[in-house]
Amino acid sequence: MQHLAFHISLSPRHFKKFTLPTVPILLHTLSHGTRIRRTYSTKMSTESPSSSRQFTHIINLPRQLGQPVDVVAAPGVSNSDFRNAIESSLFKQWLKNIQTDTGLLANGGMLLKQVLIQGVDMFGKRVGFLKFKADIFDKETGNKVPGIVFARGPAVAVLVLLVSEGETYAVLTEQVRVPVGRLILELPAGMLDDDKGDFLGTAVREVQEEIGIHLNLDDVIDLTALLDPSTGCRAFPSPGGCDEEISLFLYRGNVSKEVITQLQGKQTGLRDHGELIKVHVVPYQKLWRATADAKALMAIALYEMAQREGLLPPLKI
Fold first, then answer.
1. Counting Cβ atoms within 10 Å, is residue 70 exposed (0-12), middle (13-18) or buried (19+)?
2. Among candidates 206, 207, 215, 177, which has minimal Cα distance to 291?
3. Phi–psi pair at 181, nearest 5 degrees
4. Coil/strand/helix, residue 231
5. What span, in angstroms and rounded, lies between the C-alpha atoms of 225 and 56?
6. pLDDT of residue 276
7. How buried is residue 249: exposed, middle or buried, by Cβ count under 10 Å (0-12/13-18/19+)?
8. pLDDT mean over 68-87
C-alpha cells in the first residue's frame, strides 16, 4: 500500500508532515505492452497555495527497472492539465519510442531521471500540443542530453500533381503561420485527429478541406512507405525539438485547363477552425524554388527518387 503525503509549511521555522490514508497504485498498460506504475502526490504551502502547489507522478519503465522516473508539473500547470498530459497519447507514444529497439534507452547507455511537464494545449477534449523537458543522462560521461520536447504527434501531407495539356502542376496552399510570422506556400497537410492512425484517410480529408478536390484512396501513393523500414517510414522535419513525424503522400491526375484556372486563387479552409487558405497552382518544374515548405521539398525528393528507380505505377489516363 502507498501513502499520499501532504507537506504543509506552517512558517519559515516550523514544518509538519501529515500522512493521509492509503490510495491504490494504478497500473496502465500501453499499446506496446509497457506496464507503468503510477503514484500521485501533492505538495502545498499555506503561505501561497496557488503558486507552490506541485503535482508529481512516478513511472517505472521496463528498460530501466529499479530506476523510477519522476514526472513533475511545472509551476502554473494545473492538476487537470498534468493528468491529461501523462495520460495523453502524445506522452505515451514518446515513452514507447524511447524504449524501442532503436530508442534512447535500448542499449542501457542512457538514463531518464525526470520529466517536467511545462505546457498543455487542449484541442477540445484531447491534448493537441504538449511541451515537456526530459532529463536524460549519458551514463558513461554523466552529461545531460538536450531534452526539450514539443510534442504534437503524427501528421500527413500530400503532393498533388495535376497534368493538363502536357504540363504538370503542383497544388499548394497559402496559409497564415503565426510561429514564423509569415504567409507560407505549402502542401495541403494536417494532424491526425485521433489515435486510430488513419494516415491515408486523414490525407484525403485534408486535400478535400484545403483544396476542394476529392481523391480516391486507390489513387494515393504513400511516398514515405518507400523508405527503409529502419527509418520507421516517416519523415521527421525537426527532430531536435519536435516529435512530429509526417507521412508524405502523392496524388497524380489528369485534368482540363479549366480545372487549373478554377483552382488558382480559390479561397478554402474551415473558417470556423481559423483556417484562411488560398490555393496556388505552380508548374511542377518550378515547385522546388517556389516554396520553403520542408514538407514540399521532402516530397519532391522522394517523388524524384522513386521515379528514377521505377517504383511508381504509371499515371492513369
1. middle
2. 177
3. 65, 30
4. helix
5. 40
6. 79
7. buried
8. 96
CB neighbours of residue 48 within 10 Å: 10
Tell me the C-alpha distance between 303 and 232, whole Å.
18
Pair type for strands 220-222 and 246-254: antiparallel
Q: Are strands 167-177 and 267-268 parallel, antiparallel or unpaired?
A: unpaired
Please report the beta strands in the chain, taking only residues with DSSP state E, as ranges in sequence order.
Answer: 2-11, 14-23, 26-29, 35-45, 54-59, 69-73, 110-123, 126-138, 144-145, 148-151, 155-164, 167-177, 182-186, 189-191, 220-222, 246-254, 267-268, 277-283
Measuring CA to CA, which residue among 173, 149, 165 is closest to residue 93?
A: 149
Instruction: Please determine, for residue 100, whether its predicted confidence score (pLDDT) is greater than 70.
Output: yes
Please name the residue that has the C-alpha cell 502547489. Answer: 53
Tell me the H-state helices in 71-176.
Answer: 79-87, 89-98
67 vs 269, more confident? 67
Return the residue matching grid coordinates 479549366: 258
Going by C-alpha positions, the residue among 166, 196, 190 that lies closest to residue 256 is 166
Taking the C-alpha atoms of residue 130 and residue 116, their distance in angstroms, rounded to an integer, is 11
Compute the average pLDDT of residues 215-240.
95
Length of the chain: 317
Nine-digit cell at 141? 560521461
Q: What is the pTM of this model?
A: 0.81
Long-range (24+ apart) CB contacts under 8 A made by 200-204 are 200/249, 202/156, 203/156, 203/157, 203/158, 203/247, 203/249
